[in-house]
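From the shared-data thread, chain only:
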Amino acid sequence: METVPIQLPGGTTTPVRLFAGPDHEHETRRDASRAVVVIVPGLGIPAGYYEPFAQAITEHGFDAAICELAGQGDSRPRPGPDSTYGYHEIVATHFPAVAEVVRERFPDSTPYLLGHSMGGQLGVLYAARIRGRLGGLILVASGTPYYRHHGGIRGPGLWLGSTAMSLTAAVAGFWPGDRIDVAGFGRQSRVLISDWARLARTGRFEPAGADIDYEERVGRLTLPVLSITIEGDDLTPVASAQHLLEKLPAADVARWHNPRALGHNGWIRDNDDTVAKIVAWLRDR
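Structure, as C-alpha cells:
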C-alpha cells in the first residue's frame, strides 16, 4: 500500500491509500480493460477500516484506492467552527484532488467509484459533475436518509433527529459527534450535517453552495451502476437504496441483495461474497 497526502482548501490534509493489483506492483502496464476501484467511506468510518476490502479487490487483478473524507480517520484537522465543507465542496473540490492522485498512479486503469452509505450519495453527485470520466458506480449499503423510505418509528425519528442535528451543529459551529454519539457519525462539519439533514427531510440533493442543479444532472447519468443492499442493514433498508436509484432513471442499473445478515458495516471485513459480486460485475463491463 502507498499513501499520498493531499492538501484541501481550508488547510485540511487527507491521505489517499493506493493498492496496486499484481501486474501494477512494479511497473505500469497498459491494460484498457483494467479497473481501479476508488472507495469512498461512509460517514464516521475511517478509511483504514476498508483496507482489507481494498486488498481483496486487488487479489482479483484490479487496482484499488481509498479516499479519507475530510476530518475523518487520518485527516487533519478535526472538524470545528472553521469547517465549512459540505456535499458540494467535497464533490467539486475534494474528489477531483483524489482523482488526480489515482490517475497519476494508475494512468491506464478506468476508475469505478465504490461508495458506502453517504459515500454513495457523494459518489452519485460526483458522477453527475464529471459525467463520462467514470467507468461506473458501485453503491454498497447506500441509499438516501429520506424519512419517508424508512419504516416504522424510524421514519419520523429521522425527520426529527435530522432537524435537531442540524440545529445543534449550527449553534455549536460543528456537529459534536465526539460527545453526542448518533449513528457513529463522529465529529463533522456543520455544513455537511445540514446537507445530510436537508436530504433526510426533503429527499432531494440540494447542497449548500451548489453551482449546478444536482437532481437534474443525476437524472441524466447513463453510466453502469451496481447497487448492493445487505440483509440486516437498518440504516439503509432496500427502500432507501431504491430511492437513490430512482434518481438515476437513465443509468444501467444492476441490483443485488446480500442475504447474509451482515448489517450496515459487516460486509467490509466479512467480504468474500460482496467482493465476488463486484468482481463479476466489473468483468462484465
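Residues 87-105 form the longest helix (19 residues).
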